[in-house]
């Protein structure tokens, strides 16, 4: 468990490529406290939540509020279990989300929508804390909602600014390496750049501004990266933008990659088999490529990101002695379909000097 703000705690699931973040906020005033859990995850996360509640609040029965950013099962599958363990808890979310959460069989008296609340700001009567609910329309669901804790200035953003794990090393906080995973996630799951820009605008209107943005997947964002990543995300082409702009180029790239897979299979059949396995199964994250049998039919991200991912995978799984020949096959397949290989593919392998002369 990691503290990311005043009485604001992070629990992370253990997946290497695409983990879940679950957050707990404890509102305290003298001897009185209220406890909120945000997007409580799947059955795999229940024991972790119960243990954290025991440490932070004495027992899970002291849970008061379950906040849901949206209704996907990776955020909401635990609601019935938590309601059975904490009978006084209520669920707070958008009306669109609650309409679907009701399908779990939750008592309607437990469901509280944020839309009727004036300016979506609540003052908690028991402790006096102010909290705010911020719409994130179509990011990626119509009713997606973020939660802003004014005491800690942490914005829980749900799937907005969430990411696939691309940062190396330990810890929970983002660095420049985290952006790649965020951009790939948004290219796949967000519908249009317009939706991202509208959500960024709502965040920048918050007063005070968040010091920390805590998404449901990936790294926690703080400091200068809050503004940097908000600026980058507002310019990112995603979903329908990519489908419209890059459709012809994606078809060419799919053909080129299929040609490369054919050439690779002739020369390095075992490596081709390993590459296909990696491209089809990206850990717990959705594959970036759509396959029909052994052929790539579609690409879910930009052509540059797709190329970079394939080449990075090849560099990771290929023996160094074969990499130059593989580089040549890759470049020839791209050029065959009129695509210019990026400079980072054309660069020669830098081998370590064995002797000092």
Kindly describe this structure:
This protein has helices spanning 46-57, 73-76, 79-85, 95-101, 178-189, 193-204, 224-235, 239-267, 269-280, 303-317, 323-336, 343-346; strands at residues 2-5, 8-12, 21-29, 32-38, 65-67, 90-93, 111-113, 121-123, 130-135, 145-149, 154-158, 212-215, 221-222, 289-292, 295-299. 39% of the residues lie in helices and 19% in strands. It contains twelve helices and 15 strands. It is elongated and about 70 Å long. It is of the alpha/beta class. It has a seven-stranded mixed β-sheet. Strands 8-9-10-11-12-13 form a six-stranded mixed β-sheet, covered by helices on one side. Strands 14-15 form a two-stranded antiparallel ribbon. The chain has two domains: 2-236, Metallo-beta-lactamase, Chain A, CATH 3.60.15; 240-346, no CATH class.
